[in-house]
Amino acid sequence: MKKFLIFFILIIGLTIFSGTFYNPLGPTLLPAAGMYINKVPTLQTSYWRNIDQAQILVLKEQADFIVLPVALGVELINKGANYKLAGISLWKTFYLISSNEIKTIEDLNGKRIVTLHGPGQTADVILKILKKMKNIDFDIVYITSGPEIIQLLASGKETIAALPEPFVSLAEVKTKGKIKVQMDLQDLYADLFNLEDKRLPIAGVFVSNKKFKENPNFVKRVLNAYENSANNFYKNNFNDAVNYVFKIMQTMPKPVLQKAAERSEIYYTKEIQEITDLYLKNLFEYGAISKLPKDLYLNY
After folding, report:
1. Strands 112-116 and 180-184: what pairing?
2. What pLDDT shows up at residue 5?
3. Where is the SsuA/THI5-like domain (predicted)?
4. Domain limits at 48?
5. Where among 146, 165, 192 does a domain terminate?
6. Do 108 and 186 share a structural domain?
7. pLDDT tens track for 206-239
């Protein structure tokens, strides 16, 4: 009887102190690699594969922690999702690519730009702001997958794309350098708003309000582990992080992942309010998000 009680108490303890962490497949898996390799006790780590799945995980509160594009996470909060933004880990990863030379934004007039389909997708947000602010007439065409966009570029059916890594590096490798980076979208955003700081708060960790209320110490432990993974493991064990992402993604060649990682800016910080408030203000002003959320940030 005594052993049964001890076992029952342990099970209850695990239930109370367990949580779920979801990360998308792609460059944002690199800062999480250390935490996925060296497991946090009682934390279940998993992946989301598309925007629809991410939205369901959040709106049904099935994820205690989830890495999301900031604009998407904010819009889900605007729709009633009970989450807060804990910190940002991805600051640079989006580029405009083409086999044609593009020197200025005016060169985009009358063109078609293909990009990934999904609400709150960073490249889409920046392109919409560019169109509205500079009154440049180009069409934004949405495609569901990165590899499909690369095939369209390689075949000449499309000529310009706005993509994140690792698809940018994959396009360069697949076309043997025919397709090249023409514009850094982080630089473009900074130039549009005359910002000296060219960082863009692209993706961050959103935390369930319910989980933080239930067990703030567990939340802090997970976020500290994520910070250590992004800022220490990733930098000191770069090859291990890349190997892990290669193993999980499978379809992405390792040299492509290495190139993509080197061209992305990755580090985690919770000191994000000033730069993120400005980003969201700009998005709201140009209709990329429906409203500015109140009480967005998790204080931990």
Report:
1. unpaired
2. 45
3. 94-235
4. 19-89+201-285
5. 192
6. yes
7. 999 999 999 999 999 999 999 999 999 999 999 9
268-294 average pLDDT score:
94
276 and 129 part of one domain: no
Evaluate if residue 192 carries a pLDDT over 90: yes
Could you tell me if 109 and 231 lie in one domain? no
Maximum distance among all alpha carbons in the chain?
A: 78
The answer to whether residues 131 and 199 touch, using CB atoms and an 8 Å cutoff, is: no
- From residue 120, give the alpha-carbon distance in Å to each of 69, 199, 225, 288: 7, 17, 27, 7
CATH number, domain with residue 29 = 3.40.190.10
Query: Hey, how many other C-beta atoms are within 10 angstroms of the C-beta on 292?
Result: 14
**Whole-number pLDDT of residue 80:** 95
What CA–CA distance (Å, rounded) separates 44 from 194?
42
Domain membership flag for residue 2: no
Q: Are 75 and 221 in a shared domain? A: yes
Q: What is the CA radius of gyration of the chain?
A: 20
Q: Is residue 80 part of a domain?
A: yes
- Name residue, tokens 């169109």: 131
In 10 A of CB 238, how many CB atoms? 15
Residues 130-186 have pLDDT tens digits of 999 999 999 999 998 899 999 999 999 999 999 999 999 999 999 999 999 999 999
| Confidence check: pLDDT of 9 > 70 | no
| Band (120; pLDDT cuts 50, 70, 90) | low
Alpha carbon distance 93, 104 (integer Å) = 20
Domain count, the chain: 2
> Do the Cβ atoms of 110 and 190 come closer than 8 Å?
no
β-pair partners for 57: none
Decide if 206 is inside a domain. Answer: yes
Residue 256 to residue 237: CA distance in whole angstroms? 18
In a domain, 175, yes or no: yes
